[in-house]
Structures are given as C-alpha cells and as structure tokens.
Fold these 2 entries.
Entry 1:
Amino acid sequence: DAKTTQPPSMDCAEGRAANLPCNHSTISGNEYVYWYRQIHSQGPQYIIHGLKNNETNEMASLIITEDRKSSTLILPHATLRDTAVYYCIVRVTFSNTGNQFYFGTGTSLTVIP
Amino acid sequence: DAGITQSPRHKVTETGTPVTLRCHQTENHRYMYWYRQDPGHGLRLIHYSYGVKDTDKGEVSDGYSVSRSKTEDFLLTLESATSSQTSVYFCAISESLAGVKETQYFGPGTRLLVL
C-alpha cells in the first residue's frame, strides 16, 4: 500500500518558493516523514525530515500539519539546480534491526528560468 | 556523497548468469541497505544489514542474496539473473536506527541490464 501521495509533476519559476505537497493520511504516531530528491539518475539526496514539529535547515523547510496527515516541503528560492524528482517518504521501524523507507513515485519539479 | 561507492557502475549480463554488486563505505556505519529502482515504483528495499554477518529481507528479496563479511562491504548477489532484475540498484548506509543519525545516505547506483 502506498504510504505517501504526491502530485506527479510541478513547475516553479526561478527565484520563487517551491511548495511541494505530500499526503500521508495513514501515518502512525512514531513514523517520521523524510524528504529526498534525485537529480537525473544520481542517488537520492537527503533534504530534511521531521516527526511532529516544523523543521528548517539550509536546504528547505518542512511543514507538518497538526494531525500529521500531510506535509509540505518548501524550497524558499528555487534555482535551476533544484530541478529534480522529490520524494516524500515515511520511515517505518519494522523491527529492532532495521527501518524501511517507503518511497513513492515522487514529484518531478521543474524550475523554469 | 557520504563515502559510498558502488561497483560496477554499469553491467550487461545474460539471463541465467550470476551477478554480484558491491557496495563499499568509508563511514564505518553499522547499517547498510540495497534498493532497486524501477519506473513507476520508486525505490524498493531488497535486503539490509544491521551488522557484520547480520542481514534481513526487505520488501522485494526474492531472487537476491546478500553478504556482509566486514563493516565496509555489502554484497548483493543475483544467483541466476532474470530480465525482471534489470534495474538500477542503490546502496544506502545509516549510522543508527533512531534520531537524526538514522538518515540514510545513498551511493551513486549501478545500472544492470539482463538480456
């Protein structure tokens, strides 16, 4: 079962904020939300993650709704190099030996000059 | 990249032949993972390791085996490759299962084509 739902594609003007939505309506209380991106065919790159509170780092901000059923990744000033596929992921701890990241099919973000 | 290399980066093989992919890390992280990426499926976990000689199955483990004889290396073996195993394979590592150190860092990937 899909744990996250994202729009397949989005465009954003260069220099503007890119807001990427994600629905995770079946998320459990101890499951984290992670965001990664993948440029061309490179390995996924970590962006940010959170549990309940909003988070910010040098790359982006993560806004999680109070009921935790959805979140938004914000790239404050998108550049052409931010063109990539963005994955919203739920991290599930399924044993005391490992976590599993459930990747969906992501949102293809195109930053337009 | 967080000190992760994968080899080979590209491989073409024939159905029925064995194939081994290698993931090497220089971070001394305890946990290592193998994923495959196919169009329309995102990334799916194949196997993972939680220590030397300690491994377990992921979501799509059929047809794959793994081994980890030392901390820095995690091998993925296709005993008898099939065309359905044509994919891009990514290795990932993480330091912990909890907190910020659980973040997984990914290698550059291996493109495998099974003819």
Note: Residues 30 and 51 of chain B are 6 Å apart (CA to CA).
Entry 2:
Amino acid sequence: QQQVKQSPQSLIVQKGGISIINCAYENTAFDYFPWYQQFPGKGPALLIAIRPDVSEKKEGRFTISFNKSAKQFSLHIMDSQPGDSATYFCAASNSSGSRLTFGEGTQLTVNP
Amino acid sequence: DAGITQSPRHKVTETGTPVTLRCHQTENHRYMYWYRQDPGHGLRLIHYSYGVKDTDKGEVSDGYSVSRSKTEDFLLTLESATSSQTSVYFCAIRKQGVYGYTFGSGTRLTVV
C-alpha cells in the first residue's frame, strides 16, 4: 500500500501563479520530508526538504508547509515559471534515513 | 548525473530472459538503491544496499535480485523478465549521515 499519498496527479498553472501540491502520510515514525523535481529523461533531484520540528521552510520561490497533527505537508511554488514544468514527488523517511517512500507524483505544467 | 551512472540507458528484452542493470558510483557512498518508476505509482523501492554484500528488500522485490561485491557497483537482476517489469529503473546513492539521495539518469527497460 502507498504510505505517502500525493495530489493532484496533474496540475496546470499560468505563469506567475501559485502551484500547490499536497501530500499525506500514515507512518508517524516518518521524520524527514523531501520534495524531488524530475525533468523528462532525467532522474529526480532533491528540491527542498523539511523536518517536523518546523512548520514551514522556504527556499527562494519554493516553500514546504508541514502540519504534523494532520500528517500532511505541501509544496508551494510562488511566481510559477514555464521552467518549473516538471514532475514533482513528495517523499518521507524515518530517522535512520535508510529508505525513502515516495508519493505518486504530480505533473506540473506552467503555461506562458 | 555527477558521480553516478546507469547502464544500459535503454534495453528491449524478451519475456523469460534474464536481464542485469548496472549502477556505478564514483562517490564512495555507503548506501545504494534501486527504484522503479511507473505512472500512477511514483517511485517504488526494489532493493537497497547499506554496504558491500549487505542488501535488503524493498516493497516490490519479487522477481528481482541484487548484488554488491564492490562499493562502487550495485547490480539489479531480473531473473526471468516479465512484461510487468517493463518500467524505468533508477539507481540512487546516499552518503552516510546525509538524507538526500542522488539519482542516476535511469534505464528504460521494455520486456516484449
């Protein structure tokens, strides 16, 4: 079964808009929550990550919001650009970090 | 992708034949992983390694075996390929004490 559920499956946003992708997890032992970005023909690349001791982390136009009680976290992309068009994966792992569990992925398209 | 290469990049094989995919790293990282990527399923862990000759199963290990006789190489073998194993396979590496993964560029495998 999928321990990390991601939505939406696909998302279309206009240039300059805000893209929001949501994830929910079940395992309360998870304590590391990264987001990966993948362009066609390439492997996923780490974009940003958060630990549950903070509720928000921001890096440039990318922000992770984390809600521990709801077991949910989300990625916000501000001022979305066509170059942000890619597939985004949320993931989670426990404190050992030995294995990441990924969500199903969201294909983001930013129209010019 | 810096420090990690997968071979071959593309392969077409027939049902019932054995197939071996190779992951090679130059980073001397302890941890190596094999994932498969399928639409609607995201990335699912097949097997991983935490050292030479130390491996463990992931969530979709049936029909796959792995070997790691040297730090730099992690081999994934499909013992008898089936059409359900048609997928894109990604190798990833992780440095001990660091949670982020570095992914290779993937191998697209088609079983006909």
Note: Chain A touches chain B at residues 2, 4, 6, 9, 32, 34, 36, 41-46, 49, 89, 91, 93, 97-105 (CB under 8 Å).
